[in-house]
Amino acid sequence: MDFDLARRRFLYQSLTGVGGLALMDLASRDLRAAAISNPLAPKPPHHPATAKSCIFLTMLGGVSQMDTFDPKPTLDKFDNTVMDWKKEKNTDQPNLFAKPRLILRSAFPFKKYGQSGMDVSSLFPNLATCVDDLAFVRSIQTENGNHPAAVFLMNTGIVIPGKPSMGAWVTYGLGSENQNLPAFVVLPDFRSLPFSGSQQWGPGFLPASNQGTVLRWKGDPILDLKPPPDVTAEAQMSEMELLRAYNQEFSAKHPSNPDLQGRIDSYELAYRMQAEVPGVLDIASESQQTREMYGLNDPVTESFGKRCLMARKLVEKGVRFVQLYTPSQSWDGHTEIVKNHTKNAAETDKPMAALVKDLKQRGLLDSTLLVWMGEFGRTPDNPADLRDKAGRDHNTRAMTIWFAGGGVKAGSLVGATDDLGFKAVENIYRMRDVHATVLHLMGLNDLRLTYYSAGRNQRLTDTGGKVITQVIA
Predict the structure, then answer these.
(1) Which one of 114, 139, 316, 335 has the largest count of C-beta atoms within 10 Å of its C-beta?
(2) What domains are defined for the chain?
(3) pTM for this model (two decimals)
């Protein structure tokens, strides 16, 4: 730990005078004991929570809003029309907008579904049957149109690496309901990991125990989790007890080292997971009907389907935050967007619908918050010289996301974009507002959820976000 930062942290925490030092001594004894016994013990929320767990469905690459959940008939009228965006100054892609561009109609017909009459394109026929359980927001804007920076912003609230991810913040604020499983689980698609990999689910300056734990959907969820055949349970228990005694003795002498405690916690959690994980993630115990519902028998949907089923099983056992990823840039349809979006929707549509319905029929949807989003939206046009391979470019000005469960106002619709779907024009929200809304539904006030680092109280939303109250029941 940097000496200057450690010194400032000590001065900040010490209050003033002898009375402050005495108070700190008494408090540190309690904190030391609590940290050694259980750093992820359940913590009380700031206010009554409507969601106990969150499943974050991360659509990497940037999904086109006007081809999925935000229909724009005007695009049909102006299809193949040249648009002049040269006067558009608010862009981080000036070279793209300096070229002649053609309006591109959507190739995917829309229909209205459910009692809410929600618009869904032909890309999501299964999810369309769940719209009365979803809440759509069509007016999300973001600050960066570059994939790596935008993914960091989505996950950590800032465009550069090094800050804690949202899952880490949630587990820091609330702890975990199951001490034999990780509080924060990540289920990536190993065909292509997100930019910067583990930094996207890292703890940043938070205690190391708040980092995400990656589980695999094929084979053993964690490599080397099972002990060797010749190591008995009794022998392993004796080894753990001896190691725990040494660790506690050493930790008591170095109470200000959070990384040390994090390593100790990780080793002990791994030991407890040996007994818990195989049973929790035993897919073979699921019925054939459930396996079919999630698409496990189809190679197209198998990967995302199994991870959606794993997410349901994990939150069912008290895991606080589960994040699923599509492959990096999978939805990035600069060219041939019909081919691109058809492929990615086919992989995710059926499993996501199954997840919503499965949670609901098990009575878990009310306590589980689902969030679906990518890092930004897409433009209504593309460069004229790419007409034969028509696609859409990055768009920070408009993006559609949806929530479900966990206190969300089912069947609601918030926000609107202009006639072309290029800019949000009504009830505009930013990424920090999405973060504030997730925290609020889970019982956390984004302004009160702080951690002292680098000389100030840090937050996921930095100076604060605006809760999207229209999606809250």
Answers:
(1) 139
(2) 42-221+281-471 (3.40.720.10)
(3) 0.85
